[in-house]
From TrEMBL:
The keyword Transferase does not apply. It comes from Streptacidiphilus cavernicola. SUPFAM superfamilies: NTF2-like, Sigma2 domain of RNA polymerase sigma factors, Sigma3 and sigma4 domains of RNA polymerase sigma factors. This is RNA polymerase sigma-70 factor. Residues 122-172 form the RNA polymerase sigma factor 70 region 4 type domain. Pfam families: Sigma70_r2, Sigma70_r4_2.
Length: 318
């Protein structure tokens, strides 16, 4: 949703105000902040839109529009996260963030931090932090905000924010996922994985999987799920071969795509509806973790979700 100023004349769309133009320029940054705090595309989009509504109705004339808007969206996101924590504690099965295919915010000087911070593994680590720690870490470590800006955004003193940042950094460093440095190597391995997957090549898949690989699914109790967690190269390879080739034969498509900055895929039925996403964690030339999101509520931003139950039934009889 894009904002436009009210008023104007003529048959065309009303021109945007200067404030609306500034907001649109900063929208990618605001979404990127909100998504990393919330782990939800839909909630991040809502937070950004709420930020605009608050700013539009404000008479404030900030010295820094970037700092002002970042503060507004951060505070909204913290409030949303606090209420979301209760729902996530009651979630059925493993909870994963909503898959993000493209990060709208780009900064060449911080591309490594941005890519790592949006990975599923990193977002799951962020879930362990308190809402304030998470917000401070995102603003400081990912987007390099100064401590005065961070303090203003979260409503705490600079000294308190330094302590929050230190605790958050320790938690993140202790469990920080390590990915292969060479993006091309990871992409090539992922291509081989998806080729073997479509062909039903158990041996080929087994070669690409770490011995202790795990496949974990987020269905939220709303989609078919073989098990919350499947362990070991042999088991994972055989489960995938039992499902994917028959799915492809009924017109299903596995579309390789970066998911949360890592190699992955979007799986669609023959009508183009989204069945699930896959995200691969790759380390030392092997796939260590396969995370799949099949909860339809987390896929709507990618397109109409498929009826996964019907897809599974049809594929099973082929």
């Amino acid at each position: 949703m894009r904002v436009v100023a009210a008023g104007g004349a003529g048959p065309g769309p009303a021109p945007m105000s200067a404030r609306a133009e500034e907001f649109e320029e900063l929208r990618p940054l605001l979404f990127a902040i909100a998504y990393r705090i919330l782990g939800s595309v839909s909630e991040a989009e809502d937070a950004v839109q709420e930020a605009w509504l608050r700013v539009e109705g404000s008479s404030a004339q900030p010295v820094s529009v970037r700092a002002f808007l970042s503060t507004v969206v951060t505070r909204i996101s913290i409030d949303v996260l606090r209420s979301a924590r209760v729902r996530r504690e009651e979630y059925v099965g493993p909870w994963f963030p909503e898959p993000l295919l493209t990060d709208p915010y780009q900064d060449p000087e911080r591309s490594a931090e941005l890519a790592e911070s949006v990975s599923v593994a990193a977002l799951l680590l962020l879930e362990r932090l308190s809402p304030l720690e998470r917000a401070v870490f995102v603003l400081r470590e990912v987007f390099a905000f100064g401590f005065p800006e961070v303090a203003a955004a979260v409503g705490r003193s600079e000294a308190a924010c330094r302590q929050l940042a230190l605790r958050a950094r320790r938690h993140m460093d202790a469990g920080r996922p390590r990915f292969e440095a060479d993006r091309r190597e990871r992409e090539e391995l992922a291509d081989r994985f998806f080729d073997a997957l479509r062909e039903g090549d158990v041996d080929g898949l087994r070669e690409l999987l770490a011995a202790d690989v795990q496949m974990v699914g987020d269905g939220g109790g709303k989609s078919p799920q073989l098990a919350e967690r499947i362990l070991g190269a042999e088991s994972v390879a055989r489960v995938l071969v039992a499902l994917v080739p028959s799915f492809v034969r009924i017109g299903g498509v596995v579309q390789p795509h970066r998911v949360n900055g890592q190699p992955g895929a979007v799986v669609r039925d023959r009508e183009g509806r989204v069945v699930n996403t896959l995200a691969l964690d790759i380390l030392d030339g092997r796939i260590r973790t396969i995370r799949t999101v099949i909860n339809p509520d987390k896929l709507r931003h990618l397109g109409p979700p498929a009826d996964a139950w019907s897809v599974l039934r049809e594929a099973s009889v082929r």
